[in-house]
Amino acid sequence: MSSHETRRTELLNAVLLATRKMTGQGILFSQAVADRLGLAVTDAEALEQLTTLGRATAGQIAELTGLTTGAATRMIDRLEQSGFVRRAADPADRRRVIVEPILERVRDVEEQYAALRAATQSAIESYSEADLDLIRGYLEQALEAGRTVAAELAQARTSAGHDSSSVAALGAATSGRLVFVSGAPYVMLRGDRNLGSLYRAQFRGAIPKVRVRDGTVTVRYGRLSWFEWRAQIAGQLLEASAHWRDDRADIALNADLPWAIELRGGVSRLTADLAELELASLEATGGISKVDLNLPSPRALVPIRIGGGANDLALHRPAGTAIRLSVRGGVNKVTVDGQRIHGRGDVTFEGDGPIRMAGEVAFETKGFGSSSQRYEIELTGGANRLSIDTK
Fold first, then answer.
1. Which helix (H) or strand (E) holds 85?
2. pLDDT per residue as tens digits for the range 228-251
3. Are residues 94 and 221 in the same domain?
């Protein structure tokens, strides 16, 4: 290979690497904005697009975010419930609904993305018109190539059907940590006191990469290429049934160890029977559609944090277990031990502190303050239905 060809190859690789890094930084920035507002990444991205456009239909929002129309409608429901947007009739066609941002609520989103745009503009301000035209051409072609390959990958994912198992020896581990680092489809978890290994997993459909080190089990579903992150991470994780309808992770955890569980990047559905497990903490970020969680008796103060919004949550605790619950971002329906909580103002719960229904729900059960074995449950980004009972 000549020196000219070598130099060209080096430049091509450098451009591709820089592009991937830039896209990765974009993901981190959007996640930071979403975390600041207690939203899913998809919702923050949509708000930024909507703030720029001023108003849009559900179909337009779906096209911009890579969501299906149904998923976009549900996202708009969440944003409307949280007070970020409102629906209005289109003056030109009363049969069509337009989504508008509520300016005082999205000002923070606008300022964060405006700062990013200003910094980016400053970085390229010195380029000539010819240079800028060249850069624009590259980005447009790269985006088109990305759309094409992403569509092919989505089609391959839909038609694929695989099964795989994974297991690791217990070794010298004295505690366990399970981490999904890039989103997850349908996850089923359970504790098993008869499990001789650290964990045992069965994966159906898409096969993730699993890494085990010092008691930490890291699960990563297929690394997304730099051009498809928006359609998959920022668009599809909360509507995983569209592309992951056949994908499932069934994981048994050794119940002789305490476990910390983290699910990052969005989850379609979580079903967990942890009654035999010693749970140290549970955290799910990036949005979650449906949760059915059977909790064990806590041995200390155990935090449970769900961020990015949720649709349907059912939490079951052992009888007599003290809990504190806080919900930020709005909630449609709350049921605690069969008691429907609704309306605004203060509502008494079993003689304890008030439940506040003006944008935030917060309460603690009797004996929470004096108990050393309790659950502290925090939900940010709002919810549609939340049920807590004993089981």
1. strand 85-90
2. 333 443 444 334 333 444 578 999
3. no
Domain co-membership, 73 together with 119:
yes
CB 185 within 8 A of CB 271: no
Looking at the domain assignment, is residue 142 inside a domain? no
Is 20's pLDDT higher than 70? yes
Helix axes 41-53, 58-65, angle to 10 degrees: 120
Say if residue 201 is exposed, middle or buried (CB neighbours under 10 Å; 0-12, 13-18, 19+).
Answer: buried
Residues 264 and 384 in one domain: yes
- Please identify, among 105, 126, 147, the residue that sits at the C-terminal boundary of a domain: 126
Q: Residue 55 belongs to what domain range?
A: 3-126
Same domain, 295 and 235: yes
Residue 145 lies in a domain: no
Mean pLDDT of the chain: 79
* Nearest Cα residue to 22 out of 165, 143, 176: 143
Is it the case that residue 292 has pLDDT exceeding 70? yes
Smallest Cα–Cα separation from 267: which of 213, 343, 375, 188?
Answer: 188
Q: What's the predicted TM-score (pTM) here?
A: 0.55
